[in-house]
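INFO  loader      accepted 1 record
INFO  loader      residues=116
INFO  predictor   begin
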Amino acid sequence: MTPKNFYKRLKNFINSYNLPTIPEKKVNFSLERVKAFLKSIIKLGLVEKERWYYIPFLLWVCIKKLRLFPLAVYLAICGYHFRKVFEKVTKEYQRNKSFLNYYAKPFLDYIGEEGG
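INFO  predictor   done
INFO  writer      dumping tokens
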């Protein structure tokens, strides 16, 4: 999934999500959370290929759904992480496709016999 599609879906989710009503509690600011947010601004907002979508998305959340801002940042970071892991796994699979197919075939055949 491209960053454009991801942020479109994330925006749609944030727009339709209703935060459950829970008693107000003190906001938990911590140095680690602030550092993670600043790191996300640098990494996702300036360096990576989603830079054209991350900052406008955060601005949109600030204007439309400010209470969901922490969730929006968290989900954007998770999306970035999952995209990176998926890219790494698919790259590794493509590099070792014949090796994996050769060694995985007996196992897959065995699973097919057991499952069917």
